[in-house]
């Protein structure tokens, strides 16, 4: 594992530094960014109250969330009509990966089957709305498919998403000898198409297939990104599949893995057709890492929109979003270390956001000398110099072949080389490389 970077080291600078391997660690821009961020970080009065809490106060809140969930489960067992009731029966037990993790009956995805057949799948629709922008973002949190649930999973993807579907996989298929998720998609063209059997054979429900198109390994997000094709009859759907393996079960992503996770959050949203189109998020149980991913994306969006800065004393957006998630699916953000992780990352990103604003506005709260020093890092913090928006695959005509840098055509390499030269030329002229 890489050594931890110094406190206050901006994520924006890490990204800029990764693009320029000749920049020494002790170069002036590093010191400038660190001084400004340290000034912001040390002035706790500028942080919302919930980000000034001690670790003990955060753990007390997590315990409060746990008690609320126990009361929900107890109420659901007493009253089968309660919103916290859970489905029972042999089909439910057979389809659950873990006996203690399943959706609330009134907050679950229903498979499209004829009345009388089991429509159960261990998956929950999740919806979160940003309080400032009003944008509502949808997800489906689900367990890692079992072998007897492979067809259920793909029928759900087909029925619940638009013409493009995004799947974020947060787990390896195995941990030692224990299966965490069945291998439900083809890894390469050589694997051939995966057959998807009908879920309602007696009533002629369609059969389908999942076909591999292409793949690339993205170093920024440490993610294997695959483009798949899901077909049922004449209907075909494009699938973007993100496999992030930098988050072991019962652990947290650290150092470079944490930065990669934040990149994954951004990339998976960019590939989605719209926030209303639910992304499929799963790990093994579909609650711990999946819930943390969803909560983190929502909270980061609140920072960017400015809603986080609106939090009044006594309000805690992190507590609130985890509670809302658990009202939609039990055990979301399952472990105390996952809950504490949210505070840690949100505090770091909020300080970066404040620093960014200080650089943009020339805030008088910072000394003129410090503002002058910080101006050298403005381009890195605002993202100038990044080639954002480029596709993962140079050539979209895949013909079912595996593509990586080593397999690109000469035309593709020439095109990329020409593009890089144009970027360098714009840099020398002092222009933003992203502006065409």
From TrEMBL:
<dbReference type="InterPro" id="IPR029021">
    <property type="entry name" value="Prot-tyrosine_phosphatase-like"/>
</dbReference>
<dbReference type="InterPro" id="IPR016130">
    <property type="entry name" value="Tyr_Pase_AS"/>
</dbReference>
<protein>
    <submittedName>
        <fullName>Uncharacterized protein</fullName>
    </submittedName>
</protein>
<feature type="domain" description="Tyrosine specific protein phosphatases">
    <location>
        <begin position="259"/>
        <end position="340"/>
    </location>
</feature>
<feature type="region of interest" description="Disordered">
    <location>
        <begin position="385"/>
        <end position="436"/>
    </location>
</feature>
<feature type="compositionally biased region" description="Basic and acidic residues">
    <location>
        <begin position="399"/>
        <end position="436"/>
    </location>
</feature>
<dbReference type="InterPro" id="IPR050348">
    <property type="entry name" value="Protein-Tyr_Phosphatase"/>
</dbReference>
<comment type="similarity">
    <text>Belongs to the protein-tyrosine phosphatase family. Non-receptor class subfamily.</text>
</comment>
<feature type="domain" description="Tyrosine-protein phosphatase">
    <location>
        <begin position="94"/>
        <end position="349"/>
    </location>
</feature>
<dbReference type="InterPro" id="IPR000387">
    <property type="entry name" value="Tyr_Pase_dom"/>
</dbReference>
<dbReference type="Pfam" id="PF00102">
    <property type="entry name" value="Y_phosphatase"/>
</dbReference>
<dbReference type="InterPro" id="IPR003595">
    <property type="entry name" value="Tyr_Pase_cat"/>
</dbReference>
<dbReference type="InterPro" id="IPR000242">
    <property type="entry name" value="PTP_cat"/>
</dbReference>
């Amino acid at each position: 594992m890489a050594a931890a970077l110094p406190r206050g080291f901006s994520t924006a600078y890490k990204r800029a530094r990764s693009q320029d391997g000749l920049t020494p660690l002790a170069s002036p821009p590093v010191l400038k960014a660190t001084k400004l961020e340290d000034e912001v970080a040390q002035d706790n009065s500028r942080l919302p109250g919930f980000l000034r809490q001690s670790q003990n106060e955060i753990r007390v809140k997590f315990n409060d969330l746990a008690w609320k969930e126990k009361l929900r489960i107890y109420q659901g067992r007493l009253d089968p009509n309660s919103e916290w009731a859970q489905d029972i029966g042999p089909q439910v037990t057979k389809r659950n990966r873990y006996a203690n993790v399943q959706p609330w009956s009134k907050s679950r995805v229903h498979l499209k089957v004829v009345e009388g057949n089991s429509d159960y799948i261990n998956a929950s629709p999740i919806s979160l709305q940003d309080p400032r922008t009003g944008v509502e973002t949808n997800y489906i949190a689900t367990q890692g498919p079992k072998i007897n649930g492979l067809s259920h999973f793909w029928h759900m993807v087909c029925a619940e998403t638009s013409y493009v579907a995004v799947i974020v996989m947060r787990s390896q298929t195995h941990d030692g000898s224990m299966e965490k998720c069945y291998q439900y998609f083809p890894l390469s063209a050589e694997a051939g198409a995966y057959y998807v059997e009908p879920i309602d054979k007696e009533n002629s429900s369609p059969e389908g297939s999942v076909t591999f198109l292409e793949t690339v390994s993205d170093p920024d997000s440490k993610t294997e990104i695959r483009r798949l094709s899901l077909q049922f009859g004449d209907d075909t759907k494009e699938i973007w599949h993100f496999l992030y393996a930098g988050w072991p079960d019962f652990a947290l992503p650290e150092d470079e893995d944490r930065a990669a996770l934040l990149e994954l959050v951004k990339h998976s949203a960019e590939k989605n057709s719209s926030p209303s189109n639910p992304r499929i998020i799963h790990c093994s149980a579909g609650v711990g890492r999946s819930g943390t991913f969803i909560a983190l994306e929502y909270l980061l969006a609140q920072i960017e929109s400015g809603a986080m800065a609106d939090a009044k004393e006594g309000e805690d957006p992190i507590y609130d979003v985890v509670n809302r998630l658990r009202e939609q699916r039990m055990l979301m953000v399952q472990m105390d270390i996952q809950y504490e992780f949210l505070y840690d990352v949100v505090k770091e990103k909020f300080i970066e956001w404040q620093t960014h604003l200080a650089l943009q506005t020339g805030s008088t709260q910072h000394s003129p000398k410090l503002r002058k020093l910080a101006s050298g890092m403005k381009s890195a913090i605002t993202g100038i110099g990044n080639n954002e928006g480029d596709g993962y695959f140079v050539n979209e005509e895949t013909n079912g072949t595996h593509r990586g840098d080593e397999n690109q055509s000469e035309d593709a390499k020439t095109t990329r080389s020409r593009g890089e030269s144009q970027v360098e030329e714009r840099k020398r002229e002092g222009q933003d490389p992203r502006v065409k």
